[in-house]
Amino acid sequence: MTSAKPHPPPSLAWTIWGLGAMLYLIGFYQRVAPAVITDQLMRDFAIGGAALGNLSAFYFYSYVAMQIPTGVIADRWGPRRLLTAGAAVAAIGSAVFALAPDIFWANAGRLLIGASVAVAFVSMLKLANHWFSPQHYALAAGMALLTGVSGGVVAGVPLRYLVEAFGWRGVMGVTAALTALLALAIWLWVRDDPVERGYASYFHDASHDHASTQAAAEPTSIWRGLMQVLSYRNIWVITLVPIGFSGAVLTFAGLWGVPYLRQVHGLDALSAAAITSTLLVAWAAGGPTLGAWSQRQGRRKRLYLMASGVALMGWAAIFFLPLPLWLLVTLLIPTGFALGNITIGFAWARESVPPRLVGTASGVVNMGPLMGGMMLQPAVGWMLDQRWQGGLVGGVKVFDAAAYQAGFTLIFLAVVFASGLIFFGRESFCKQMT
């Protein structure tokens, strides 16, 4: 009897999940890598702030576009095949970016990377839904952010060291090779459900999951499932809120923070990358911690709101007060930690829809964090170009403090918008609402 089978050992479950997480780590690394090579990219492709923001955002354009189909495909194909294909295409995209002769091909490489790694997060949540108990789901969502941000940290000081030693093209070429090896490892080791390894599954709607997998083959069923997911108010709230919270992190730490610290505070590239990595590390720590706290409290909404208040005050001080550098760096820590509250939203979303729609709901909700980077990175770049005073150093545009403050005001307004939206969410009390 299936019920007599033991659940998978934690070591196996975390290994299966961890291979999927490695693609998410690579995706996050690619997401923020432009931050430490802004000068090389602007010089090699002869572009300004708006074009650089757009080059970085090409990753987000395809990533966001892939989220809904990724959720549907995850429900239909399973995470193993989806992760394998994603890693293979990401390797190709990385190679295209590394060899790009002009901005067109660089944009094309970033587009391929974003579309391919877009499958990682939803697939991780799908694996967690089958390989972990419901009590550990919020922890897994938080650990996902921690894993991803680890990739962002690698794209900070370590990447800058490697770029200075081997050039950004050489480093991206090696990244392509490593990603190809990951595709092979996922195919050989990952399985969609513990049943495939002789263990009992934690998924409590397995028969319905199989039925929905078959039904997903019909376009009408795909459309119906999406419409059902979008009929839940919480899904709208939880999707839109991270536009401000994650968008702030991805825009500051993922692109414009390093040139800001170099041009306004006079830091070298390594020091600036280390400081923006501080924000990412704090963000990573906040994810699993706040997710676990909300689970322990038995509430999602209250802690989400409290953390958003801390983040709002932190950004207000960082962007609008004449802070000494040491205090600015200090404030990045609680601000980043508080912005880890987005992991609460992923568990909240899972509790807001029927189990058979978790994959599709995860895809919809995961659009929010990337939409923030997609919109804010080029928007800040556009604002910088509008406020540019004509300064050039080595063919690269230099912006003053007033220009950066104008650009960062857009980030602050996005965080205000996100904080206000949380009030419209319906509390789940950490239980399945449907």
Helical content, roughly? over 70%
The gyration radius over C-alpha positions equals 21 Å
Uncertain spans, ≥5 residues at pLDDT below 50? Answer: 205-218
Average residue-wise pLDDT: 89
Structural classification: mainly alpha
In whole angstroms, the N-to-C terminal distance is 29 Å
Q: Trace the largest sheet across and list its strands.
A: 1-2
Write a short abstract of this structure.
The protein has 434 residues and is mainly α. It has 19 helices and two strands.
Characterization of this structure:
- The protein is mostly helical and 434 residues long.
- It is 78% helix and 1% strand.
- The protein is built from 19 helices and two strands.
- The chain has helices at 10-32, 38-45, 49-77, 79-99, 103-117, 119-131, 137-154, 157-166, 168-189, 206-215, 219-230, 233-265, 269-297, 301-320, 325-339, 342-352, 358-365, 367-386, 401-421, and strands at 391-393, 396-398.
- It has a two-stranded antiparallel sheet with strand order 1-2.
- Helix 7 packs antiparallel against helix 13.
- The radius of gyration is 21 Å and the shape is globular.
